[in-house]
Design goal:
12 helices, nine-stranded mixed β-sheet, globular
């Protein structure tokens, strides 16, 4: 269902143009909690769950929660295979503008296998020669006219699963045309983003707690396990203040909730109590909700609040995109919370209703 219209006059931004991974995956539940050995054969079962990649997840929610007329343009590549065609069809049905999604006839669509142990832990095996690996700076420059057309009124989004060179090009063009620059990086990419100066070209950075720890240079305490999340959060905000003083930052930490920093105020949102089916994709859902709030002109603390709602509703689905999420479903969830949401979030979720 497409969202109801929001008065365009209330929007701070009117388009999102982003690059990142477009792909799919499957979940394999292993039997036995011991770590899979190098030469071990292990039984298990495939789960009936649909997995999607970062750019697809984020832009899907932005498109389905925002109003008609807000343009969402992903820049990416899929393979010339059934998976690529299926993903493009799903993205089109959600309302995404696919003019910059290309097909590589020689490579497969990005694919991963998520291995799940009975205790809930797990990891991913992801192909590194997929169509997404071929997204180039030239492909980003092909969208320059749209970036220029949305100068000061657009959001540029750079997320993993495409080469850093392509994401750097998008951030460079966004800087030139004065778009809001939003980004995330994997834990392994954090040192490169620091050394290359990429972080200095980011206005809104989304991190999970592991990425934040890497950025802050935090180490676990001997004998006490993980460093407390709030200490990592404060350390990363302090470090980022030295790199880009005006940067807005969000940090997600699963059941411990999430934090945001707007340069002046530290805000915390608890993890909402919902029936959890799967937490996969929750961080990307959170980022999408924050982007929607920012695009609608909410202050970061309220956009963060909206991100927490989207993340909470996302984990009630076994799939990494919960296609039931729109402003109506978010409003219903907000009404069930023990404490009311802020007036700004309530007004946004109520927008367009008679």
């Amino acid at each position: 269902m497409r969202p109801l219209a929001i008065d365009p006059a209330r929007l701070r931004y009117r388009a999102l143009i982003g690059t990142g991974g477009i792909g799919w995956g499957m979940f394999f539940a292993l039997n036995g909690n011991h770590t899979l050995g190098r030469e071990e054969s292990r039984s298990g079962r495939l789960l009936d769950r649909k997995d999607y990649c970062k750019l697809h997840i984020i832009t899907h929610y932005v498109c389905t929660v925002m109003c008609p007329g807000f343009r969402t343009l992903p820049i990416g590549m899929v393979g010339g295979d059934d998976a690529g065609r299926r993903l493009q069809a799903e993205m089109g049905e959600a309302g995404l503008d696919l003019r910059y999604v290309r097909t590589d006839p020689e490579r497969p669509t990005l694919f991963s296998i998520c291995l799940l142990y009975p205790d809930g832990s797990g990891g991913n095996l992801t192909v590194n020669d997929s169509a997404s690996s071929q997204v180039t700076p030239e492909m980003i420059r092909a969208a320059e006219a749209d970036l220029a057309a949305n100068a000061q009124e657009g959001i540029a989004l750079a997320v993993p699963e495409v080469p850093l060179a392509a994401r750097a090009e998008l951030l460079e063009l966004a800087t030139r045309y004065r778009l809001l620059r939003a980004a995330s990086f994997t834990t392994e990419e954090i040192p490169i983003a620091l050394e290359s100066g990429l972080l200095a070209q980011v206005d809104l950075l989304a991190l999970n707690i592991d990425e934040a720890a890497r950025l802050a240079g935090s180490r676990p305490r001997s004998g006490t396990g993980e460093l407390p999340a709030i200490e990592i959060v404060r350390a990363v905000f302090q470090r980022l203040r030295q790199i880009q003083p005006a940067m807005w930052v969000t940090v997600t930490a699963g059941s411990r909730g999430s934090w945001s920093w707007d340069g002046r105020e530290l805000s915390h949102c608890p993890a909402h109590k919902v029936a959890v089916a799967s937490t996969a994709g929750a961080g990307d859902a959170h980022f999408a909700g924050v982007l929607v709030g920012v695009a609608a002109g909410l202050p970061l603390a309220q956009a963060h609040e909206l991100g927490s709602l989207v993340a909470a509703l996302s984990v009630t689905s076994y799939h990494t995109i919960n296609k039931e999420i729109d402003r109506d479903s978010l409003r219903v969830l907000a009404e069930q919370l023990p404490s009311p949401v802020s007036a700004g979030v309530a007004a946004l979720l109520d927008a367009g209703r008679s």
